[in-house]
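This section describes the prediction task in plain terms. A model, or a person checking by hand, is given the sequence of a single protein chain and must write out its three-dimensional structure as a string of tokens. No templates, partner chains or ligands are provided. The sample shown here is typical of the held-out split.
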Amino acid sequence: MTRRRRASAGSPGLVHAEHALGEAINGNGDSGGPVVSIGSNGKLLARGVISGQSLGGYLRPCVGYVFAGRQCAMDVYYADLRSTMNAVGVHINTA
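The expected answer:
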């Protein structure tokens, strides 16, 4: 349900994703949280770690737990797990 693209040449490993239907997917306090997607087999796939969001035209009403002053957006910037791990030469053993 999201469109993803690399954030910019100056931010290697950072991805900018937007909700395809324009709904809120990220808000204040979400930084450091996981980014996951659902694989074709129905299992969750780790994609990265939330870094931030855009404001302005990206702001949307928050859903779920909403505290005073919370701002939510239809986009998210996140550090891509795979490219970050490759950059530092580590991998996850799953067996």
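For orientation: The mean pLDDT is 86.
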